[in-house]
Amino acid sequence: MTPTDAKTSFPSLKVQPMDIDNRPRNLSFVRSAPERHWLGGDPVATAWFNALSLTFPDGERFFIDAVKAHRHLAEGKLAEDVKDFIVQEALHTREHAALNGHIDHGHYPVDKIEAMVKARTDLGRTRGPIPMLVVTTCLEHFTAILADDMLKNDKDLSAAPDNLRRLWLWHAVEETEHKSVAYDLWQRVAARWSHFGRYMIRVRAMAIVSCMFMWNVTTYALMLLKADGITGFEARKRLYGYLLGRPGPLRRIAGAYFDWYRPGFHPWDHDNRTLLDQWRPVFDAEARAIQAAE
Ligand SMILES: [Fe+2]
Ligand SMILES: [Fe+2]
Known about the structure:
mainly alpha
């Protein structure tokens, strides 16, 4: 699929398709503490999702600030998309902070993990606005392909309580909707750079960000498992078995991940609008019901 060109002053750029908007849905999901191993009683699956959730509030505030710093480059539809991106990520932050607040702080090293996440995002902020935006495009690629996988394999969440299942699927829908917003801004930042220079920065950043992201999230998951008494080789075997074996979310996204390294890649080269057509009505209906009740 070739993304539709928007009418912008950067006419040669690939951009988000014109029929995709990313209007935020102000939904709340977490009002009480879930069971300790809320994903079907499985400590490993729960640790993976909790580890991801613990990275989101600070991580997504980082994305918001990276995008805000370049919003003056957006015009027309992209300006609208940027505005909605900021609200979507702020709502994701709020909902994941609510979930994180309900993880048992007495049992799990939640404060320690949150401090580690904050230290990493604080370090990233010292690099300045353009590196922050490049890192954001890389992490948004991760969230987009993980979201795509989650929406295709929602059965992986079938053993979760309904509110948490909906939380993750709502987040996945909105990550898909706005998956190229940061990237489209980055294209504007780098519009006058050489193709090769732009490519090298994007690829080098992804190589570094991938190692750090995977190392960090698996470290957090192993810390959570340790609190459950699952440690050492056993913990690693079970965690990597979950991620790469069965159900294997990381194995399933490998091909989409490597597409980033193709020259000329754009997030909407993965055209999953059909998947969005399937899931958006679910959360649009929830948002409408809440509005009607207000
Ligand atoms: Fe998000
Ligand atoms: Fe995002």
